[in-house]
Input
Amino acid sequence: MVDFEQIVTTYQKPILKYCYSVLCDYHEAQDAMQMTFIKAHDKSSTFKDGMPLSPWLYKIAYNTCIDIMRKKRFYSLLSGREAVTEPSCEMQEEYMSEELKKALMVLSFKDRALVFSRVIDELDYNELAQIYGASAAALRKRYERAKNKLAIALEKERSGQ
Amino acid sequence: MEKDNKEVMIKAAFDSINIPEADAIKDIRARMDKKPARPFKRAFVVAFMAASVMMSVVMVAAYYVGSFDRLRGIVGENIAAVIQPARGEIITEDGVRAEFIATGAFDNVVDVFITIEDMVGDRFSGNRFMLSAITGMEFNMYPVGFEAMDSATIFSPQVIHNENGVVTLHGRGVFPFSVNGMELNFEIGRIYYGTNFSRIVRPIDLAAMDIPIDPPALLLDGEKVLKPHQIDYDFGIRNVFEQISSIGWVDGKLHIQLYNPSRSNPWLTFVRPLERAQGYEHFNHLIYRFDGIDFDEAGNPFFAVWQPFPLYFEIVFDITPEILLEYDFHGTFTGFEYMNLDWYTIFTVEANEAQLKADGFEVAVGSSVVNEVIVNPSGIRLSGFYTSPREESVLDNNRAIVTGVSSISPMETNQALWLDISGYYTGDRISLVVNTTDGIHRGVLNYFTRDDDGNFTHIFGFNRFIDLDTVVSVGIAGRQLIYFPAQKN
Output
């Protein structure tokens, strides 16, 4: 594996943006991003040379986001409050437009992750399959559905409906 | 990648996210280099603390041993021999003392024994109880539900003793896999009590009492348990996450063997058998996680693609071939489209696919379909799913088009509810899976039958899902036929 600091430098912003899009919480996203690299560092011995780095990192980032969501839900349950299953996308830092924020609300956080990976990172379905643990065909179907849903939501937000 | 208009629009929206430039490496390094807490330096402080702790331990141990002895008197020596004392107690603000007394875990059965005592009155007499629990496997963020009603992670314990205002409860969770060698803990968030759970129940907050459960050491596994001559049905391995690899009867019990080629996918299986034991009937939900979790050296959970879960798992049903002859047995290892990060179940079925398509159903039978085991195939089978809002149940000429399942839990009703519904009809029975597709991740699989007048009669609810990302279902249709002793051949 190449130099750790170089990896962080290269991927910190994409990973942060990914986590932010998934979690809709900037501070949690920062935390997820840092945890992603720490996990990657700790598990670097298991990374096989020649493997593409990006899907591996994104998989870690995705799972870290899931962990964060589950922790939130877990502690919600413990405290007897209603379970939190999705990020609320409320109370955000102002790094995300209002319309995107609201549009993202229509997707599950997993869908957000998938759409982001496909549209922004332009990962192909085989790479996505590595990250999301699903077959490429299934992800394609899932992606199409999520994409359409998000596009409709974005249009609605823009038209002010 | 060539983008269509929608993707261009979405990309533009994501590109508008304008996060500030930052150098994370310092923070990451700082977190990695974080030093452990500094130990006490003053010897006398250490000595004082040690003495205090030792005294507390002795007192608490004596207390709990006493509770365990009382339990031993209730459950008898045989059961007492296979459970261990547990430690955990809380007194709630409204005067309820709850105490974990003992736990037991062996193979796929986990037992917990809890007492609750009303210290200020007699609120518990004549009531039934439900416990909302979070049971951790490996670590405690993964709820394993022992469920008995259609909401939250709740299970119904048996009242095994009730005397002088102290109610002793026994809860049993049955996993479709062995917990031997795993780290378990069991947390109870609330106890609900009431005479009728279709009405108001009263909760007691327990602030998540938490106890560890110590299963025995991990049994060696990784090889097929069923021997070739015992395999009645052997299924080809497909390129899917997991599938039923074989099924057969061993010593009169039905064994279902699952093959998990990737060993790594975070799958969950819920099974809801109907258990009849000691005259007490309850439903269990089983959740089966094919986990991909590993731990780093600091003990932090880490999702791993190399998680060495065994290639083969085996579920044993105490059910004879004779009984099965009367019913259909569906091992619906449907793709259940966690694979799609979504939630529609697809039944494999040798369905009348062309007819479904002609009728406007979206038929999804393909590579993501895994297996269906049909021991006693009969009738027409349909597979596929379609999306529909809630509607009235409809039966249309041997075809299941059923919605309106009432068990969708409205915990997160802020999202649009769409249901993917799978159904198939076999002779006198209709089977359904209802799943939401919007991230709520809930579903119900119910079995119905028709009475002599042709009306549908609910037999039993079979499956239900809660907000879990990866689910696959194994189903058994029939009457009181499932009992889940863990049994290795």
Q: What stands out?
A: The CA atoms of residues 53 and 59 of chain B lie 10 Å apart. The longest helix of chain B spans residues 43-75. The mean pLDDT of chain B is 46.
